[in-house]
UniProtKB/TrEMBL annotation:
Residues 11-24 have a biased composition (Basic and acidic residues). Residues 11-106 form the AtuA-like ferredoxin-fold domain. InterPro entries: AtuA-like_ferredoxin_dom. It holds the Pfam family AtuA_ferredoxin. It comes from Isosphaera pallida (strain ATCC 43644 / DSM 9630 / IS1B). This is AtuA-like ferredoxin-fold domain-containing protein.
Length: 118
């Protein structure tokens, strides 16, 4: 069953939902498309480069994407994404719990400068 979504999508949240967490100074964000069509759009345009470009103001490191096609989703691992992690950061979100919400605000489609084919 597909969930209704705005046409055309204006933000990533119109195509998917997400959840995030941490392990030390490394964060991960799981992004799951609402349907197969959304998954194909995300697969083509939600690249590690696009996500890194969007999160650049947070001072993140390398971003890696792991595809989960049977779930219509992806797991993104973000190095140095938490300014030291829970024990060493002065950020409000030291455990990366709000990162998913931030990622869902990614404008859709991503800006041309952030679009890369994987």
């Amino acid at each position: 069953m597909s969930l209704p979504r705005p046409t055309p999508p204006r933000a990533l949240r119109d195509l998917a939902h997400a959840r995030s967490g941490d392990k030390g100074n490394r964060a991960n964000v799981g992004v799951l498309a609402f349907d197969a069509e959304g998954y194909e759009l995300l697969r083509a345009h939600l690249t590690p480069e696009a996500l890194a470009s969007f999160l650049k103001p947070l001072g993140i490191g390398e971003v890696r994407r792991y595809d989960l096609p049977h779930l219509h989703g992806f797991n993104f691992v973000i190095e140095s994404g938490l300014s030291g992690g829970a024990g060493g950061s002065l950020r409000l979100d030291t455990q990366g719990k709000a990162l998913a919400e931030t990622v869902l605000n990614l404008p859709w489609p991503p800006p041309e400068s952030a679009r890369f084919k994987s």
